[in-house]
From TrEMBL:
<feature type="domain" description="SIS">
    <location>
        <begin position="540"/>
        <end position="684"/>
    </location>
</feature>
<dbReference type="InterPro" id="IPR047084">
    <property type="entry name" value="GFAT_N"/>
</dbReference>
<dbReference type="InterPro" id="IPR029055">
    <property type="entry name" value="Ntn_hydrolases_N"/>
</dbReference>
<protein>
    <recommendedName>
        <fullName>glutamine--fructose-6-phosphate transaminase (isomerizing)</fullName>
        <ecNumber>2.6.1.16</ecNumber>
    </recommendedName>
</protein>
<feature type="region of interest" description="Disordered">
    <location>
        <begin position="47"/>
        <end position="66"/>
    </location>
</feature>
<dbReference type="GO" id="GO:0006002">
    <property type="term" value="P:fructose 6-phosphate metabolic process"/>
</dbReference>
<keyword id="KW-0032">Aminotransferase</keyword>
<dbReference type="GO" id="GO:0004360">
    <property type="term" value="F:glutamine-fructose-6-phosphate transaminase (isomerizing) activity"/>
</dbReference>
<dbReference type="InterPro" id="IPR001347">
    <property type="entry name" value="SIS_dom"/>
</dbReference>
<dbReference type="GO" id="GO:0097367">
    <property type="term" value="F:carbohydrate derivative binding"/>
</dbReference>
<dbReference type="GO" id="GO:0006487">
    <property type="term" value="P:protein N-linked glycosylation"/>
</dbReference>
<dbReference type="InterPro" id="IPR017932">
    <property type="entry name" value="GATase_2_dom"/>
</dbReference>
<comment type="pathway">
    <text>Nucleotide-sugar biosynthesis; UDP-N-acetyl-alpha-D-glucosamine biosynthesis; alpha-D-glucosamine 6-phosphate from D-fructose 6-phosphate: step 1/1.</text>
</comment>
<dbReference type="InterPro" id="IPR035490">
    <property type="entry name" value="GlmS/FrlB_SIS"/>
</dbReference>
<dbReference type="InterPro" id="IPR005855">
    <property type="entry name" value="GFAT"/>
</dbReference>
<keyword id="KW-0808">Transferase</keyword>
<feature type="domain" description="SIS">
    <location>
        <begin position="369"/>
        <end position="513"/>
    </location>
</feature>
């Protein structure tokens, strides 16, 4: 939901074309987050031109003037980043700007916007400026909840607004504060004064003609990371000192860095990153950086932040021979499931009679808190969307293995109700990105009640992984497509492994536990076999692509499969679809059944098999068009083919892992439906990958 990308260089000469290419490539890496417009702001005049002493060969690049408050080039466009790229190069050609112009110091910022206040338009796109002279230029991810009050205040003081956005108040407020200063202050101090007036969530990049060559980034609620090319050679700056243009000491360090909403935009440049925390203010100037935190008593004292090494390869954010990211990620699931289990599961049973000296399942993040979780009053899973469905798929496993009451909560609903949470509860927060706004707010609420908070995320260093007491990383690899696929199956697996670890001291459950662990070793191979249904799902999609509605029936473990399949179909194929608990069929849904409505029934051999067989017979009695997901070699289901039913046959596994296999053909079906209907499968209409903005405006 919106993407921020900034590029800062000092003492590392780059030409204008390189800077622009870096911005556009960064924005393209963030396209998967969802957006409807985009924009950039780049310096056209070098704030700190190189001297002979600064350059290796003792030469000076062609002089391009002194900064002296020159406004940046700002270009904004509705639609794809490629449209913005074309408009930018057209603008540069029209204005006869030299693409080979060299910059010793460059501050460039860019943004992809997902409309929240005002429709998609060039005026509403970011960057936003304080005035025609661009004294302050801002890009913003998040929502300001008090922007109306700030806007009214600024209008009373003579400011004129040109957009409908909440963001525009930020640069104008910066200008308002700056012109009322009794004496000059450092850029970060000015920004901190502005932040005191802002309420809501934000990640910001701010540049100013009054502070040429400097960039300030700040974060509250929305993700932001700093990537540094050569971390060892970069020095930290002093907060209190105002940069003097004549002080050569400020020109002694070379620095190249990238600021982004997501690691996918920086990994091709560097793997050394700093994850900014809430209330952090980052200041980049003269080849150095400083990080401060507004929640500290002394805001001028720099705070330490850990320099992390990203465990991500560039290949993970590329399509790798596939046509789309969603297709790639569906087919990556055998490997992603294996990665989720790697080093955590001992697949071979110990010798008969040998005591369990080593546990067969060990999640390192839960070792210290496992005993506390076993003794808790209840386990509460909190999530949104696909992550909620994954919790639902694994709920019964946790109940059976742990003998603890398990409840599921949609994060937004929990916050609306202010659900009672107690100190002896364990709350598990599940999110692929680790940045989901509602889940984060629910986490803060649970922590305030004293509950033990566990995180399950796919993103190391995310807000949820930092804020919870303990947790599990999925290790499923980067997921770029908006529709979650491999993260869903890895989430089911992670929660199942959590239940198995918590049950390791139960003798009565040992045999069932061992059966599940034995099947874990077979699961990637069975998923790989299921992926061979790709062609048959494409053929099936050809028959369904013109339908207006689809229904999915199941119960037990596979109720989650029905919900997730319906979610995938509606979010990417844009077909109205519903996942229905088969036990509720007679309480309304049966009225919709006729010979025209396609219905997918999940009826694999598990404890619900006989009940689902009864559902099939009732639906056929009403001339329903059925597609049945069943196990290979199920003769009873094959008999239904003579009655016009189409079968989707999948390998059989233990009941608690069957949802992982059952969802695969339905993911493929939703993918092929989307392609055949001519829609964008990786960036579906109106949706974003990381929902970092809450519905509470």
């Amino acid at each position: 939901m919106c993407g921020i990308f900034g590029y800062y260089t000092y003492g590392v000469p780059k030409d204008l074309k390189y800077v622009l290419d870096t911005l556009f490539n960064g924005l393209k890496r963030l396209e998967y987050r969802g957006y409807d417009s985009a924009g950039i702001a780049v310096d056209l005049v070098d704030p700190n031109p190189a001297t002979k002493k600064d350059t290796p060969d003792g030469t000076i690049p062609e002089e391009n003037g002194t900064h002296d408050g020159v406004a940046p080039l700002i270009v904004k466009e509705v639609g794809k980043v490629s449209a913005l790229e074309s408009l930018t190069f057209d603008t540069i050609h029209r204005d006869q700007i030299e693409m080979g112009r060299m910059f010793n110091n460059q501050v460039a910022i860019s943004h992809t916007r997902w409309a929240t206040h005002g429709p998609p338009s060039a005026l509403n796109s970011h960057p936003h400026v304080s005035d025609a002279d661009c004294e302050f230029t801002v890009v913003h991810n998040g929502i300001l909840t008090n922007f109306k009050l700030l806007k009214e205040f600024l209008i009373k003081h003579g400011e004129t607004f040109v957009s409908e956005t909440d963001t525009e108040v930020i640069p104008k407020l910066c200008k308002f504060v700056y012109h009322r200063l009794s004496e000059p202050v450092p850029f970060p101090k000015l920004v901190m004064e502005v932040l005191k007036k802002l309420e809501g969530a934000y990640a910001l990049l701010i540049k100013s003609t009054h502070y040429p060559g400097e960039l300030v980034a700040c974060k509250r609620g929305s993700p932001l990371i700093l990537g540094i090319k050569d971390a060892l050679g970069v020095r930290r700056t002093s907060f209190s000192r105002i940069r003097d243009a004549d002080d050569k000491k400020w020109r002694s360090t070379n620095m190249e860095c990238w600021i982004a909403s997501d690691a996918s935009a920086v990994v091709e440049h560097t793997k050394r990153v700093i994850v900014l925390e809430d209330n952090d203010v980052l200041h980049l100037t003269a080849g150095g950086y400083g990080i401060y935190n507004t929640s500290q008593q002394d805001v001028e004292e720099a705070v330490p932040r850990v320099l992390l090494t990203l465990q991500v390869e560039v290949e993970q954010i590329m399509k790798g021979g596939f046509d789309h990211f969603m297709q790639k990620e569906i087919h990556e699931q055998p490997e992603s499931l294996l990665q989720t289990m790697r080093g955590r599961v001992q697949f071979q049973r110990p010798a008969v009679g040998n005591p369990y000296l080593q546990p067969r399942v060990k999640l390192g993040g839960l070792v210290e808190t496992a005993e506390t979780i076993r003794r808790c009053r209840r386990i509460m899973f909190v999530a949104c969307g696909t992550s909620y469905n994954a919790c639902l798929a694994a709920r019964q496993t946790v109940e059976e293995m742990c003998d603890v009451p398990v409840v599921l909560e949609l994060a937004s609903d929990l916050l609306d109700r202010r659900c009672p949470i107690f100190r002896d509860d364990t709350c598990v927060f599940v999110s692929q990105s680790g940045e989901t706004a509602d889940t984060l707010r629910a986490l803060e609420y649970a922590k305030s009640k004293g509950a033990l908070c566990v995180g399950i995320t796919n993103t190391v260093g995310s807000a949820i992984s930092r804020s919870t007491h303990c947790g599990v990383h999925l290790n499923a690899g980067y997921e770029i497509g908006v529709a979650s696929t491999k993260a869903y199956t890895s989430q089911i697996l992670a929660i199942t492994m959590m239940a198995l670890q918590l049950a390791e001291d139960s003798i009565s459950k040992r045999e069932k536990r061992d059966q599940i662990i034995d099947e874990l070793g077979q699961l990637p191979g069975k998923v790989r076999t299921t992926l061979m249904l790709d062609n048959s799902m494409r053929e099936l999609a050809k028959h369904l692509k013109d339908e207006h509605s689809l229904m999915f029936f199941s119960r037990g473990y596979n109720y989650a499969t029905a919900l997730e399949a319906a979610l995938k179909t509606k979010e990417v194929a844009l077909i109205h679809s519903e996942g229905i608990l088969a036990g509720e069929m007679k309480h309304g849904p049966l009225a919709l059944v006729d010979e025209n409505l396609p219905i997918v029934v999940v009826c694999t051999r598990d404890s619900m098999y006989k009940k689902m067989d009864g559902v099939i017979q009732q639906l056929l009695a009403r001339s329903a068009r059925l597609l049945i997901v069943c196990n290979e070699g199920d003769e009873a289901m094959k008999a239904y083919e003579s009655r016009g039913c189409k079968l989707i046959q999948v390998p059989e596994t233990v009941e608690c892992l069957q949802p992982v296999i059952n969802i695969i053909p339905l993911q493929l079906l939703s993918y092929h439906l989307t392609i055949l209907r001519g829609f964008d499968v990786d960036q579906p209409r109106n949706l974003a990958k990381s929902v970092t903005v809450s519905e509470e405006h």
